[in-house]
Amino acid sequence: MKSKEATKTTYRLPIGPIHPALKEPVMFEFEIDGERIVDADVYLGQVHRAIEWTGMRRNPIQILYLAERICGICSISHPIAFARAVENAMDIEVPARADYIRVIQGELERICSHVLWAGVAAHEIGFDSVLFLTWQMREKALDLTEYLTGNRITKAIITIGGVRRDVTKDQLPKIYETLNYFKDNFEKLRHMFLDDKTFKMRSQGVGVLTKKDALELCAVGPTTRASGVKKDVRVDQAYCAYGDLDFDYITPDVLTGEVNGDVYDRIIVRLLEVKQSIDLIEQCIDKMPSGELVSEPKIPKLLATIKKTKGEGFGRYEAPRGECVHYVKFTGESDHPYTWKVRASTYNNILPWIPMLKGEQIADIPLVAASTDPCMSCTNRVAIVDSGKRYEMNKEELHRLSVEKTRRLMA
Predict the structure, then answer these.
(1) Domain that residue 191 falls in
(2) Which range has the worst mean pLDDT, 54-68, 143-157, 174-188, 378-392?
(3) What angle do helix axes 60-67 and 299-308 make, rounded to 10 degrees?
(4) If you count DSSP H runs as helices and E runs as strands, how many of each does the chain have, helices first?
(5) Residue of 69, 97, 102, 363 with fewest CB within 10 Å of its CB?
(6) Side-by-side strand order, sheet with 322-331
(7) What does the radius of gyration of the chain's CA atoms come to, in whole angstroms?
(8) Each residue's pLDDT tens digit, 226-284
(9) How far apart are CA 208 and CA 187, in angstroms?
(10) What are phi and psi of 72, to 5 degrees?
(11) Buried b vs exposed e over 325-343: b needs ≥16 C-beta within 10 Å?
């Protein structure tokens, strides 16, 4: 009688944990039958950067600059979520003009993030020429970010109770010039991703996340909206100036009339959200009221008030990848928060990887994983154990398999 081990046709494919120098390392463990993924599991928590611990030993003004560094691509999202948590605890009312400027900066960041993601997705299936084009477009958004804030990545524009920089009339021509550039190139971007035959073959029916799984696994952002779940903090619990603006949820049926929840649908949602962000920025410029930029400009006075604050605050924000949450607690004994807790959107989008990856090929792992726009560093090494023999597969080899599959389909 043959043993179970002798009749077993699958083998393990562990990937990760990834480089500890970057945030949110993760380890996958796949069960593979030939080229097909039978099962998958995810392990978190390999490295902790102690950002929260460090923040609880600093005052909220100092923490803002730590919050910016939770994620370089979401360096507006986290400071706004943190500022809103503190403002909630202190019952601070942010000036209307500052709320509009926060929306402008947030939507500009969304454009940067989604266009960057589109380039990475193209690279994972071997279309590096598309990667270069999308990143050329992203440079325009970063140039505008630098023009408005003085910085390209960590903007240092958010403060407790408002913003540190205004959007002036002199800056409007540059803003409109950049927005018009995106409008002029949007159709080209849409055509490359949504009409190209090979893109469709690589993305349609791949990495499917059903609406049921998206709800049960608490997916957020474009990942859940691509599965037909209408969930967006900007609409559900409008903050900043979003309640004054005209917009709605973006789901794939807006364009195609149907929802499949695959990689192709996640491409649709992000591309349409780029167009939506352009419109939201234009609405903000048209409707922006005059007034102050910050509720309390004197930092020492603000910190003295924080020191007397006793209570909790909660800040929600719809980052490019989905909802991120910041929680703070003050005891009234110090200007340092007693507790600061952050939940980034990637945390919610980890478990949905499992149903998305089951049944797919090894060559689809980079594309499916990238389709949720995870905020983590690249996988350094893969160790494969097959019939007792161990060999290693690095990131370049995994990418090569993905590109080869694209070429087979093109042929």
Answers:
(1) 51-342
(2) 378-392
(3) 100
(4) 18, 10
(5) 69
(6) 310-319, 322-331, 339-343
(7) 22
(8) 999 999 999 999 999 999 999 999 999 999 899 999 999 999 999 999 999 999 999 99
(9) 26
(10) -65, -30
(11) bbbbbbeeeebbbeebebe
**Which two structure tokens, joined as six digits, stand for 174?**
């540059």
Are 112 and 142 a contacting pair, CB within 8 Å? yes
Q: Is 175 helix (H, G, I), strand (E, B) or coil?
A: helix
In the numeric block, which tokens belong to residue 220? 């957020």
Tokens of 50: 């102690």
pTM of the predicted protein model: 0.85
The distance between the two most distant Cα atoms of the chain, rounded to a whole number of Å, is 83
Q: Are residues 18 and 108 in the same domain?
A: no
Name which of 146, 68, 140, 141 is nearest 109 in CA terms.
Answer: 141
Paired residues of 15 in beta bridges: 28, 382
* pLDDT tens digit sequence for 186-229: 888 888 888 888 888 888 898 899 999 999 999 999 999 999 99
At residue 125, what is the residue type? I
Residues 33 and 153 in one domain: no
| In contact, 157 and 163? CB cutoff 8 Å | yes
408 CB-contact burial (10 Å; exposed 0-12 / middle 13-18 / buried 19+): exposed
The two tokens of residue 226 are 């691509």
Q: Which residue has the tokens 């392990």?
A: 43
C-alpha triplet 179, 183, 184: angle, nearest 5°: 115
> Where do we find the tokens 């005891």?
331
Residue 371 lies inside a defined structural domain of this protein: no
Name, in order, each residue with C-beta under 8 angstroms of 268's C-beta and a sequence gap of 6 or more. 194, 226, 252, 255, 256
Examine the domain organization and report whether 185 and 148 are in the same domain.
Answer: yes
How far is C-alpha 279 from the chain's CA centre?
20
- Same domain flag for 253 and 353: no
| CA within 13 Å, CB half, 113 | 29
Tokens of 112: 């940067």
- CA 262, 268, 274, 277 torsion: positive or negative? negative
CA angle 309, 70, 225 (to 5 degrees): 100
| Cβ neighbours of residue 374 closer than 8 Å, sequence gap 6 or more | 24, 26, 321, 346, 349, 350
Q: Are 84 and 225 in contact (CB under 8 A)?
A: no
Which one-letter amino acid corresponds to residue 291?
A: G
Q: What is the dihedral of CA 178, 247, 230, 28, to 10 degrees?
A: 10
Amino acid identity for residue 81 in this structure: A
Which residues have C-beta within 8 Å of that of residue 194, sequence separation ≥ 6?
200, 255, 264, 267, 268, 271
